[in-house]
Amino acid sequence: MWRGDYLYLIQNLVIKDFKIRYRNMSLGVLWSVLNPLVMMGVLTFIWTKVFPQPDTQHFPLFVLCGLVPYNFFTVAWLTGTTSIVDNAPLIKRVPLPREVTPISAVLSCCVHLGVQIVLLLSIAILSGMRVNVQWLWLPAVWILNIVFVCGLALMSSAINVFVRDLRYVVESANLVLFWLIPIFYSSDRIAKQYLPIMDVNPVTALVVSLRKILLNGEPPAAMTLLKLTAVSVTFFLAGLIVFRRMKPRFYEHI
Amino acid sequence: MSISDGRPAIVFADVWKSFARHAGQMLIRERLMHWIRSQHPERFYALREISLTLEHGESVAVIGHNGAGKSTLLNLTTNLCRPDQGRVEVNGRIAALLDLGAGFHPDLTGAENVKINAAILGLKRQQVREKFDEIVDFAELREFIDEPLRTYSSGMSMRLAFAVAVCVDPDVLIIDEVLGVGDMAFFDKCRKRILEFRNSGKTILCVSHSTATLADLCERAVWLDHGRIVDQGPISRVLAAYKAAMIPRAQPAGVGG
Which residues partner with B54 through β-bridges? Predict the structure, then answer.
């Protein structure tokens, strides 16, 4: 029915979201930088001064490698989850391909993410790291993570139409994830029996890979990459399948 | 899908459409109870055994009191929802003036809103570039186009929305109660535009409570009552029958439905 240009539409929706978000803030893009910087400062203070840890070299950079993926994931998942319900007028009145809504919601968080990645790389350079060839891995691990969040958002946005409480589940899950993702601790210190479980989480895989690339100047582990790819693609496909099955009933329930 | 393949513009073949009452308002407990007892929520029929054919170039009005199923009929045509039973077929590019201003946002400028709205309605980048000036000129908002939409009067934003919708260049135009936009001069412009559509052999499906507008724009009428077609035929005859039936209903409350 709808024979427009998907990419052009998604691009327009992402730009729209970006403009709306930043036009109403007097500090604009600075907000994207301020929040992770404050969190980085607080966590660094706690884990190097209040509860000093044995190995805290480059701790600000170490923490930021955890915070940036965590921030992106939580915001993108939540915006994605509520996207169909939030855009009810559009869903009710325009025969758009429905998939566009959660995907563009996730992608519009990427603008924000871009700013935070620039911050992350700046902190890496300020910490004395050198730009090296391993940095070329960065786009790959990030894109895999974005694909994962898109799949998750497709799934949860569809379910949220029928079970509106889902957004509160997502909010709680995001709080719990702050502890389950190795943000302020190193994945090396996780007890062995939990390691396989941790490893499957694409956000953890991203954090671990970022640390390898930025702190050690090493490529991400092959196993991590493999798992990240497998989980991301699986979630994306599963998300699409669930979404397609549920979307004919959106109209009635929204 | 081209007009020349001889198929009618819109075909409804024995279409039934029902909705669940209280859909989406159930708590988990109620859902579970329904599921355990394998009960289904009560449904009501918005449309029953609708069979309707619109040839290319026809202009058809849908009339009926509130809740008769007019909007459901239009929504089935634009494929927003699907029938329970029967078949809905649409041949050609469709543009619905029922989604006026879809995705408009008050904080964005008129120009930004035009681009997003056009993309939502299915225009491609190149087409938006080509039509942009035409849209702005049609809306007569050239000097305000870079101002945020929240500074517009409601008439101005409706004019902008209408301008985008008619510039999509559809084969089938669906108009849902939107001709109350802007002042008399603009109304006249919209009316002319719609008549141009009709004269160039495009199909029009129109819903309005203004019987004068319908009589002006359409040749044929379909009268819906409680989801069924009660009458269809030349607009003057059906409108007269409809008005005659409405008078006793309207009198107690003092307003027409």
Answer: B10
Q: What is the edge-to-edge ordering of all strands in the sheet holding B85-90?
A: B43-54, B10-20, B85-90
Give me the CATH topology for the region B3-93+209-250: Rossmann fold (3.40.50)
DSSP 8-state class, residue B222: E
Neighbours of A59 (CB within 10 A): 18
Question: With an 8 Å Cβ cutoff, is B17 touching chain A?
Answer: no
Whether B80 and A9 lie within 8 Å, measured CB to CB: no
Does residue A101 register a pLDDT over 90?
yes
Alpha-carbon distances of A182 from A6, A150, A200, rounded to whole Å? 37, 22, 13
pLDDT of residue B25: 57
Q: Tell me the CA distances in angstroms from A228 to A139, B83, B207, one per residue in order.
A: 14, 41, 52
Phi, psi of B76 (to 5 degrees): -65, -40
Chain B contact for A23 (CB, 8 A cutoff): yes
Determine contact, residues B173/B92, Cβ cutoff 8 Å.
no
Q: Rounded to whole angstroms, how far apart are CA atoms B207 and B177?
A: 6
B4 has a pLDDT exceeding 60? no
Residue ranges of the domains in chain B?
Answer: 3-93+209-250, 101-169
* Interface predicted TM-score of the whole assembly (ipTM), two decimals: 0.78
- Within 64-83 of B, beta carbons closer than 8 Å to A belong to 75, 78-82
B129 in reach of chain A (CB within 8 A) = no
Higher-confidence residue: B180 or A59? A59
pLDDT in tens, A118-140: 999 999 999 999 899 999 999 99
Cβ density class B47-86: b for 16+ within 10 Å, e for less: bbebebebebebbbbbbbbeebbbbbbbbbbbebbebeeb
Of the candidates A2, A13, A253, which has its C-beta nearest B23's C-beta?
Answer: A253
Kindly list the strands in the beta sheet with B220-225, ordered across the sheet, starting from the edge strand earlier in the chain. Answer: B94-96, B172-176, B203-207, B59-63, B220-225, B228-234
Q: How far is B2 from chain A (nearest CA, A)?
A: 14
Mean pLDDT comparison of A102-111, A245-254, B74-83, B97-106, highest-scoring range:
A102-111
- Which chain A residues are Cβ-neighbours of B120 within 8 angstroms? 4, 9, 12, 90, 94, 96
Residue A154: closest CA among A236, A253, A232: A236
